[in-house]
Amino acid sequence: MRWQEEIPSFLRELIRNFSPSGQEEGVADLILEKMEELGFDEVTRDRMGNVVGKISGGEGAPIIFDGHMDVAEVGDLNNWHVDPFSGVSLDGRIYGRGSVDMKGGLASMIYGCASAEPSVDLYVVCVVHEETYEGVALREVLKEVGRRPRAVVLGEPTDLNLSVGQRGRCILKVVTCGKTAHASMPELGRNAIYRMIPILRKIEVENRRLPTHPLLGKGTMAVTDIRAMPGGPIIPDRCEITVDRRMIIEEDREGILEEVRGLAPEAEVEVVKEELLCYTGYRMEVESYFPPWLLAGDHPLVRCSLGALKGALGSEPEVTVWRFSTDGVASAGVLGIPTIGFGPGDPSMAHQPDEWVGEKEVILAARGYKALAESLSEVGDPL
Known about the structure:
Number of helices: 10
CATH architecture of the largest domain: 3-Layer(aba) Sandwich
Number of strands: 21
CATH superfamily of the largest domain: Zn peptidases
Low-confidence stretches: none
Strand order of the largest sheet: 1-2-6-3-7-20
Structural class: alpha+beta
Strand content: 25-35%
């Protein structure tokens, strides 16, 4: 294996090709070419622009390895001490936007799975638009595969530990209405902003009361945006806020809607819907509801994965959960497919200036993916 040179080199190439959500075409081209070079049995690109590589292994439910090609925006370049698109290596670290979230995981996954000898089919799924609408693209691919997988392995950063869940999230729009008037005569109107103020206070108080899960942590509710219309010297007749609600297990869409409507009985409350535009030109409407999920610690997938990773890494990883959201909202949260996460890099480096991942970590991660592919394929159906 020439992983020591090839995986870091491929990762640097991916980083140099900036790929914010909806602009992943260049990275998709690189991945498609690399999969063909490494001998994947089938490599396809679907209508959304997702790249899927198949390694044929035999009968039985397949295994899905999932990672995303899009990255977060870089923000203020003055906060970076390295070029975010350079992929430069310094002191054993590879720097650049997407190095840890999650082009490092993609590079490791592609090489690790390409070297595996599984007894069932493997699909390495490289998706678009995860940063904006996690799970939507993976769900599309799972429909295309046509067979229920025995397991899904997410390549998001875990510090080479085993992640088994995350909180969910629901994005809501709350609207208050009023009546316009000239700003010099406010008494003639009804100010929609003033009608929103008590709702903002209630949300702040409610956030402190939300329940806590022993593994996933606390549910949260935060106002992330506020807008008033029409603007100018006019008393606004419309005020909108965006509410980001992080959910723990047993909380769901209908319960969240009921909760927020209870805080704002005179306002309009709905889950945000937006249009997703892919680099292929494909469009679809997406609802901003992404359910939580958690795999039990004694689940066969957890036990088997811990054993495989201990053999590959030399020590047993810790069982953890993510603070952020992942494609597991689709595979586990919606479809109930046993799902785990394993990847190189510190999750707290995601979206940070001077983002980096260790060169040794991406090599170890590739070994881990190879071990997972082979070990999980030997476990009987269903997991």
